[in-house]
Fold this protein.
Amino acid sequence: MDRNFARALALVLKSEGGWSDNPADRGGATMKGVTLANFRRYVKADATKDDLRHITDAQVATVYRRFYWDAAAGAELPGGVDYAVFDFAVNSGPGRAAKYLQAAVGTAQDGRIGPPTLKAVGARPPGAVIDDLCDARLAFLRRLPTWPVFGKGWSDRIRSVRSQALLMLAPPSPGPRPSHQRSRRSPAVRCRCLPAGRSAPSNACDSGVRCFKS
């Protein structure tokens, strides 16, 4: 759902943090999860690392929407599933996130979330899609040689993604209550032990004496 973009982006940015230039990270230098390559592609072609360090919030949103959210069909996926796929795309690439979503719903794994994939996603309970996708994502990351370095952070991130994505599921709309379940007001009754003019909502007064209708 496109209306979830701002909420999903805020959650992703909490996981991505600020500046990072870890030699063990093959993505290279990043700021708020934006790589220098993507910053140059979508914002400023000749950007330097210093430019990246001073990226604005609007520029961050532009990169995330164009490179990740749109590529992951965020506007077309059910609420909750959109965030789970989006975060996977940010962490491991849009193509991989799409293929793992397709594997979770049993469609051809071509890395593009089109009508067949969207139809298959819609045919399954969104909570089940989220759980299967998060399980598969964690299994993939465990196989990476960098797991000993980043494994704890990845595990914590996926645990949070699963929890937040499930919270995004739209609750079912309550239907009309059957007539036999609708509340009925008890007839007003007058208790023999109460002064005239006072009524009680049930057929027993505080003293336990049986009350009778007026």
About this structure: Residues 188-214 form one domain.
